[in-house]
Amino acid sequence: MKIVVLAGGLSPERNVSLSSGTMIAFALRELGHQAALVDMYFGLEDYAGPVEDYFDQPLTEKWKKIDPTAPDLEAIQNQRKWKSGSKFGLGVLELCQKADIVFLALHGACGEDGRVQAAFDLLGIPYTGAGYLGSALAMDKDLTKRLIAGLGVHTPKWRRVNYTAKDVDSLTSTTPVPCVVKPVDSGSSIGVAIAHTKKELHSALLDGLRFGGRCVLEQYVSGREIQVGILGDRALPSIEIIPKTGFYDYANKYQPGAAEEVCPSPIPQEWETALGEAALKVYHALGLTVYSRADFIVDEAGTAWFLEINTLPGMTPTSLVPQEAAAVGIDYKSLCQEIIDRSLEARKA
């Protein structure tokens, strides 16, 4: 098949996305597909040949390793030669229309929030992963929690706040600590802070202004960080994350050796069953398809507290879903092929 692997984009998670896309593209080439890796934001602006020949362009390995710091998006915008307000770079849509399917390796607000999926639906371009509505719902941490609150899935208490600098002092005084401050619609733990004191909360809220002052203030639950991948309609074996320092933030996620990842999780079978059931409840409630990954904290009593669900989980060398799939005998290349096969069925439906 001719497959476009769409990565990068204008998102705080573009570095992670480029790494995912590179790994996916190499795997698809090894499977015999004509895979074209393209940065969604820059597109084909440095390519002068026929668009249909781009599928045979050599792949680069320069994006395999993830920069441990989040990108400067203003600097990224200034680097683009094509001066257009479009989030799709030059030639991207034309290339995608020549593909049998687009493998979405995008992460974050430019690709995981349903806007790309909606555009592709209108253009008749098949793509991998969940549809536009489920993607949009899952990207919004507040809406996700509202939808699953009545399903018997435990989730920490929370409230969404839209604030400016003048509101920080008031929010600091009225919000109990410890708590977690999260941008409402970002991933990879970018902008997430655990505030144990009022001083830390004040600092976290000030930092949250970088993300537009749209945050979820969530009750802090102490426990074990366990995540559950979903492939099709089954939960994969859970994976426990044990950061060597701090919590599972951006640096600990993508810096090799910064966290121990144990799969299957060393937990009682009843915990494993409950986690899988909770993950699938959320998955179905949001109308998701193909694959995803749900994040939990399990407290000392064994209660699984749902935090969020990701509709385009990372496919980097250190990502979790590939590790969970491997635990049931699905290697990386086979996982990529299964995602494509399931996605084609989902688009037909």
Top keywords for this entry?
alpha+beta; Rossmann fold; D-amino Acid Aminotransferase, Chain A, domain 1; Dna Ligase, domain 1; 3 domains; 4-stranded antiparallel beta sheet; 12 helices; 34% helix; globular
Structure, described:
The chain has 349 residues and is of the alpha+beta class. It folds into three domains: 2-127, 3-Layer(aba) Sandwich (Rossmann fold); 139-153 and 221-348, D-amino Acid Aminotransferase, Chain A, domain 1 (2-Layer Sandwich); 158-219, Dna Ligase, domain 1. It contains twelve helices and 13 strands. The protein has helices spanning 14-30, 73-79, 92-97, 115-123, 132-139, 141-148, 168-174, 198-208, 250-254, 269-285, 320-326, 332-348; strands at 2-7, 34-39, 101-104, 158-162, 179-183, 193-195, 214-219, 224-231, 234-235, 239-243, 259-262, 291-298, 304-310. Strands 8, 9, 10, 11, 12 and 13 form a six-stranded antiparallel sheet that branches. Helix 4 (115-123) packs antiparallel against helix 5 (132-139). The longest helix has 17 residues, at 14-30. The protein is globular and about 60 Å long. It starts with a strand and ends with a helix. The model has no long low-confidence stretch (mean pLDDT 92).
